[in-house]
Amino acid sequence: MVDQLESTDRAQLTVPLLPLPGGVVVPGMVVTIAVESDEAKAAIAAAADADDRLVLVPKVGDRYATVGTLAHIDSHDRLRGGRKGILVRGLSRAVIGTGATGSGDATWVRVDPVLDDVDPDDVADLTRDYRAIITGILEHRGAGRTLSTAIEEITDPGQLADTAVYSPDVDLAQKVEVLETLDVTVRLEKVTAWAREVLAELDVRSKIRADVGESMEKRQREYILREQLKAIRTELREMGAGPAEDDDGQDYRTRVAEAALPDDVRTFVTKEIDRLERTSEQSPEQSWIRTWLDRILELPWGERSDDNLDLDRARGVLDADHTGLEEVKDRLIEQLAVRKLRIERGLDAASEPVASSSPLADWPADTDTDTETGPDTPTGTPEPGAEPTDDNPPVGDPVEDEQPRGRRGSGAILALVGPPGVGKTSLGESVARALGRRFVRVALGGVRDEAEIRGHRRTYVGAQPGRIARAMTEAGSMNPVVLLDEIDKVGGDYRGDPSAALLEVLDPAQNHTFRDHYLEVDLDLSDVLFIATANVLETIPGPLLDRLEVVTLDGYTDAEKVTIARDHLLTRQLTNAGLSLDEVEITDEVLRHVVEGWTREAGVRQLERQLAKLTRKAAVRIAAGDPAPIVVEDPSALLGRQKVFREDATDRVDVPGVATGLAVTGVGGDVLFVETARLDDDGGKGSLHLTGQLGDVMQESATIALSFLRSHAEELQLDGTALGGRFHVHFPAGAIPKDGPSAGVTMTTALASLVTGRKVRAGVGMTGEVTLQGKVLPIGGVKQKVLAAHRSGLDTVLLPKRNEADIDDVPESVRDAMTIHFVEDVRDVLSLALEPVE
Ligand SMILES: Nc1ncnc2c1ncn2[C@@H]1O[C@H](COP(=O)(O)OP(=O)(O)OP(=O)(O)O)[C@@H](O)[C@H]1O
Fold first, then answer.
1. Spatial separation of the C-alpha atoms in residues 118 and 555, rounded to whole Å
2. ipTM of the complex, rounded to two decimals
3. Cα within 13 Å of Cα(758), Cβ side
4. CATH number for the domain running over 648-833
5. pLDDT per residue over 437-475, tens digit each?
6. Annotation-wise, does 599 bind a ligand?
7. Minimal-distance CA residue to ligand 1 atom 26
8. CA 614 → CA 231, 246, 603, 609, 620, distances in Å?
9. How far apart, in whole angstroms, are the C-alpha atoms of residue 357 and residue 361?
């Protein structure tokens, strides 16, 4: 192998080897090397026998580089301190070959000199990049022009790459790599990559330095300016000239002067501005006070919209927005009429300026609830957080008080109660529109904390005003329509009772001085038109319910839904889908099919969603080139398979032991199937196993049902032995908690059906509470239940006799379509509901 090399490479030389432990010499480099070790001395002495040439081989760790630099000793020097040195010039790279023998003690090696071999044009891009990067680095380093000019002047690509060994960013191992990389292109690529990293890092560093520098500078400048400002102010004060205030404070003073604040609020706010100016800028209190001032000034003080009390117009707006709901609209119009009359007769002071102080001093205030708002305080605002004290006694007798309570006591608060999607929220919006007032909605669902309503005290971290005050800000006027949504879903816990705060909000005797804990000033809410909504009455806290005038919205019949869809929902959804009204054709009959086959609800929310889907699909078709109008004949083509099958109700009762009950759930009326089974004989005791998440009252009514049947077995001609077994009673939709006594008749019927083997007639739904004697007592939610029965395809309904009057609420079309029996005794239920003995 060695022989072969010798024969092919004539230029092979044998030269002494000088190890270089700390550096790399590249071709073209001229450098002085100190000669200290014996090895070096021997190598230099031996070089005389090789035309003053030797090979410099760098050493990294224990390893010698595989490539060295063939160098020529230009002169022998004496270095400082008398040491010997040589001045060498790098000639070329040399691949180190095998050891050889030679003169003196030196190590002789065979080397293959290698010259760079590249066409500069082939690496033009690389060289340009590398130059640019290096120039960038040198600029960052603040190196003088000379260095970059020197780099510019190197035209040979290999040499250019070799300059890397001069760089402080390249370590010894990398320098050796430069030397060992014989291929110029590869060498250039390597050094470019390294340099690029260095440049990127320098860029980031300098950006950070610049940013830091800037903010430091700004802070210093600010500090100096502030100090100067202080000095100027002091000087001015000493000269007796203004202004002495902080600019900030001045700014707030201007805003306060411009805002229509009630007098007491103004006094209080001014005090706070004084405090702001006294507070040191470093203190966190500054920002608290500022935030507080901003919140106060954001409130729409003195802003009110003029009521439009034209009743015909109002009715027109309500009618335009909502189909049907005549009774509810009548009630709303009545309220507006009362309001109008009171104003016309001067009983209300709607036209007087809104101020929370003076005019109220004449009225006795009612302080029977636990609030901090004492009687009106014409002399200014009580200290923040003042509790009611004995010096602050209630005036007048709250119970006997026959005086009008508030200034604008315009009657009770309307509460719209009904299942989801029947239009409660949108009615509220309509009322606002009819009156020409702003509208805001306050969602109360899940509010557990009094502070949510009334705000946190200012000392509390992250404190903010409560929802009522925020709603006023949002409304931008002091007389908006505020919809208190889901008032049945507020609950109290250890954090206080939100309903107590709501009581105060809704009480005309108190709400002209509603005090938010955060704001600490009185807010006059007496001009606000509050409307509450709820899904169910039962969970509205009692005292709150007392203040409400309940109007129920029980849901719609299928025919009503079709009209609503036609008049409102379809138009809206077509517009949403970017279609014009004539681009989709759908008959009432098909709409009805959608209602029946794809929705199951008391309201129209699912219906609206289905219509949205339908119009979207139609829009896709039109966009894809189908000719308009799209005629909808079979909704399943657009909505997918039918989801709701109403024959359900008749199928389910096809075996003895199952009866159909009517119930009111959170989503409106619904039918429930009571299933019963006899498990085993329990020795004549007659016991019950109940499933389906039944509440206490429901469990008791199951016991009553069984006891009634057992105690009247003989009279009812029931098999007494069969009744002595263990029964399982289940209410399907097992995951939904249910309670209430109104399933009494249904359970009695199901059990009677089971023990007699007589099936319950298909199409019969029932509701009513049962006593141990078998009396049927009245229940609630008649309209919702009858509508649900109708919706589910039942044709006969059994209701308690004492609910007879409620049936008037049910639309005539539904009444006509169904047979309704009123029953006083559960025996009548059994004879009407059970099929005859086979
Ligand atoms: N009688 C109606 N006429 C026209 N549109 C109606 C009618 N009833 C309901 N809608 C529409 O149905 C949608 C749902 O109504 P809304 O959101 O007001 O229901 P809600 O009773 O407030 O329900 P929730 O209790 O869930 O808040 C709204 O788009 C509303 O405009």
1. 89
2. 0.96
3. 18
4. 3.30.230.10
5. 999 999 998 888 888 899 988 877 778 899 999 999 999
6. no
7. 420
8. 73, 63, 19, 9, 10
9. 7
Ligand 1 centroid, distance to 627 Cα (angstroms): 33
Question: Ligand 1 — pocket residues by CB below 6 A?
Answer: 322-325, 420-426, 533, 535, 564, 568, 603-605, 608
Q: Tokens 């001085």: give the residue.
A: 513
Shared fold status for 311-382+406-552 and 648-833: no
Binning pLDDT at 50, 70 and 90, where does residue 572 land?
very high
Q: Is 419 annotated as a binding residue?
A: yes
For the stretch 14-70, pLDDT in tens is 999 999 888 899 998 898 888 888 888 899 999 988 899 999 999 888 888 999 999
Section 507-514 average pLDDT:
87
Q: Is 782 annotated as a binding residue?
A: no
Q: Is residue 785 annotated as part of the catalytic site, yes or no?
A: yes
Distance 756 CA to ligand 1 centre (A): 46
**Does domain 2-115 correspond to CATH entry 2.30.130.40?**
yes
Please tell me the distance from the alpha carbon of residue 424 to that of residue 421, in angstroms, as a whole number. Answer: 7
707 is catalytic: no
Q: Which CATH class is domain 311-382+406-552?
A: alpha beta
Q: pTM above the 0.80 mark?
A: no
Q: Look up the CATH number of domain 558-639.
A: 1.10.8.60
How do the domains of the chain map onto residue ranges?
A: 2-115, 121-172+181-202, 247-298, 311-382+406-552, 558-639, 648-833
User: Whose alpha carbon is nearest atom 10 of ligand 1?
Assistant: 423
Residues 6+ apart with CB under 8 A from 684: 721, 724
- Atom index in ligand 1 nearest the CA of residue 324 equals 1
